[in-house]
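Input (3-hydroxyacyl-[acyl-carrier-protein] dehydratase FabZ):
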Amino acid sequence: MNSLDINQIKEYLPHRYPFLLVDRVLNWESGKSITAIKNVTANEEFFNGHFPHKPVMPGVMMIEAMAQTAALLSFLTMGKKPGQNEVVYFAGIDGARFKRPVGPGDQLVMEVEISRVARGIWKYRAKATVDGQLAVEADLMCTMRSVAEEPSAVEQ
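Output:
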């Protein structure tokens, strides 16, 4: 079983609190898939405004958590850790569907599979569940770039 704790995750992702959204990697298989978790707590910054009377994790944050999980899988698959000059950018999100709200106390279990890698574009099929119930699913596309390169046709 290949797993990573939070300190190992920080070696692969440049994100830090409050934007690091992967707490643990449960299992991964190079070139294939990864399963990771995000423990959603009442202390999350976004709950202050989304929504004070009924805290709900924003959908965009769930997508970001899955994208961070996908980035981990890519670096693990390549067998390298990112350098100071490497960044993973979103290139696209297709078919995003939100099936249930996620709130404080939930554990988001993210499963990401590599669909295709071609010409520097990584495509993934991602989903996240809470207590076995589908919360969100999407097809993600990412690309890796040097920060010295000007990203074209990708979100900054």
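The beta strands are 24-29, 33-39, 86-98, 107-118, 121-130, 133-146.
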